Amino acid sequence: DIQLTQSPSFLSASVGDRVIITCRASQGISSSLAWYQQKPGKAPKLLIYSASTLQSGVASRFSGSGSGTEFTLTISSLQPEDFATYYCQQVKSYPQTFGPGTKVDIK
Amino acid sequence: EVQLVESGGGLVQPGGSLRLSCAASAFIFSDYYMDWVRQAPGKGLEWVGRIRNKANSYTTEYAASVKGRFTISRDDSKNSLYLQMNSLKTEDTAVYYCARAGVGAAFDYWGQGNLVTVSS
Predict the structure, then answer these.
(1) Closest Cβ opposite residue B106 in set A46, A97, A101
(2) Contacts of B111 in chain A (CB under 8 A)
(3) pLDDT of A28-44, one tens digit each?
């Protein structure tokens, strides 16, 4: 199985900050990676697919990059509605796996 | 507007069975692969399994943790997805989400989530 790790696991930031979350895969997955945002009690929301393609309707302050084994999700200027938990997911092979999550909290 | 609405969750004893349903609307359900994802209380997301579309013979994939106990099926005439869960264990306690696999195989639409509690 392909394992995903995320760093940091917890991040405290202020409105307006640039935030970078890293996801590393245990083996190469090309660009077969997605990013999701989840708020408490809600279903996850797709932000980025194919490592760097912004999902329709998602704010342009979100961007993704990377390929192979290392990927990043960047929020260029953190907004109040962005405080949430972020997960990466590999869709390269079965079983599909998610990273453990990165919780972004208010500083 | 695309919607996925789940039903069928609840409390069940260990060793028992439960079937979850997911009703889809506002898209051509039969064209898409559909997945189930779960989230134990306070934990992260865990992929449960997938069913492909008719063009791909409705074949399925499962996580090792549920293989042989859970069965995913679909009824395209009813725009519905199902998760039959047998031999339930306490560790199956989670919120279960159905999700549509869209562009790039990512999950672009999710149901609202349905809590399954396995406890005596």
Answers:
(1) A46
(2) 43
(3) 999 999 999 999 999 99
